[in-house]
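To whoever picks this up:

The nightly regression suite flagged SGNH/GDSL hydrolase family protein as changed. Nothing in the input moved, so I suspect the structure step. Input below, exactly as stored in the fixture:
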Amino acid sequence: MERQKIFVIGDSVSIHYGPYLREMIKDKFDYDRKKGIGQALTDLDKPIGGNAGDSRMVLEYLIEEYQKNARYDILVINCGLHDIRVDRFSNKIQVDLEEYKLNLIKIIKISKMMANKIIWIGLTPIIDEIHNLRKEGFLRYSKDVENYDNAAKQIMKEYNIPYIDIYNFTKNLGTDIYLDHVHFKEEVKKLQAAFIAGYLNCT
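Regenerated output under the current build:
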């Protein structure tokens, strides 16, 4: 039987668990993702290369791919952590919740024209005290992670899009899971990949 192709569009967290996920699903799926992993790894906080960024950027990327007649068997998407970035000087959030919701609906609609199946992966949790200890760069707040993840979950339910709840899975692993302010230790990346692979291998 011909293996289905999975294409991932996601943030730097998805870049980190990606190699483990690829290995765990290789018997059933061909794994690919937005190009530019090396570029993205030079600065994981910047949405460049393989790091798909916020919902505006994901939507823009999908529109460009649609215009190139891109087609996918399974499209796996996540965004949200870049949307909730807060400028520490203006206190302005990057993409407000209402725009995020609208962007997600647009993402679903264009994805349905390009893919046989769409799967949404939730946001990953942050801990305010760890993330915002930094003296520079943007802020994030766990209340926003929860609000945006819940909004995404509700929209996916309304549009009948499978949703993988990596938020609660990761949150339940405890607090000693972070490599830095938002990314995870190696063993956590493997667990996240296994959680996602378990769902994909059952589809």
